[in-house]
Amino acid sequence: MSSNIALWNSFSKQYPQQDDASINKDAHYIIEWIESYGISFENYSLLDIGCGTGAFSIPLAQKKAHITALDISYDMLKIVHDKSVECDVGAFITLQHDSWSTFSRTQTFDIVLASMTPAISSTYDIDCMLQATKSLGIFVGWKRYENNTLLDLLLLAHNAPEHYSNRSVEVKEFLHTLEKASIAYNVHYFPTTWKRTYTYEEAKNYAYKQLLNHQIFPQEEKIDAILHDIMVDNRIVSENKSIKGVVLFSKCALLKEFSLVC
Fold it and tell me: Torsion over CA of 72, 76, 77 and 81, rounded to 10 degrees?
């Protein structure tokens, strides 16, 4: 676990933050879609699994949800804390430094959220998420991972299997688990594109971290060859394209429409 913590702490320096334009756009789009069902977050308890730098924790705290922001990385949580102070929502966010695998299962939350997080990477992780959910759950994942131009080149050069491009649970697997448990849900898919621009050293650092995260030993000569080949004006641009899915599910026994009243 300590190696995972160190890795995600290092990722925090380059991880998209809550005020990043592309992350902000996707988060607000998803929140608006959920609110279109008449759902209000105000005064409800919400667990944000693998909260990262607060892409959802901050805007949902601004809507007066009582957030437990869970992440394995102390550095990620430090960013959430600083953003919560900056946005004056610190009173609505409780930081929880823990992994999803060791987080206490004794507490349930009105709403449980997991978005694009490797914390949910198996059926067991999904089951634990369902157990923690009192009323409503929100899951955001890939419908189809299309490409990450830099990462795909790195994986190809290191002879990595194709499935290494995406290690988290896909939407279809999540839906299968809900159906087996007879849990009502709605799902919505949307395309998303975002870009990152790096200096050479930033890109090299990113390459090493990504390969290690995929449990691949980085080969420096291959990394250098790729970065030199795609560098323009001393900058390296990585473009990411995918189709995301957002799943809204309810554990209410009698469900005619999504509601927090069970």
Answer: -170
Q: What is the mean pLDDT of residues 150-173?
A: 78
pLDDT tens-digit map of 200-251: 999 999 999 888 878 899 999 999 999 999 999 999 999 888 899 999 999 8
Q: Which two tokens stand for residue 97?
A: 């430094």
Residues 143 and 189 sit within 8 Å (Cβ to Cβ):
yes
Which is more confidently placed, 255 or 133?
Answer: 133
Amino acid type, 121: S
> What are the tens digits of pLDDT across the range 79-104?
999 999 999 999 999 999 999 999 98
Q: Which domains does the chain have, with CATH numbers?
A: 1-145+166-192+242-255 (3.40.50.150)
How far is the C-alpha of 9 from the C-alpha of 38, rounded, in Å? 37
109-115: strand order across its sheet: 93-97, 66-71, 45-49, 109-115, 133-148, 236-250, 184-198
Distance CA 204, CA 190 (A): 31
82: helix, strand or coil:
helix
Q: Which of 66, 69, 89 is nearest to 78 (CA)?
A: 69
User: pTM for this one?
Assistant: 0.81
CA angle, residues 171, 108, 17, in degrees to nearest 5 = 55
E strands, 154-235, are 184-198
pLDDT, mean over the chain: 87
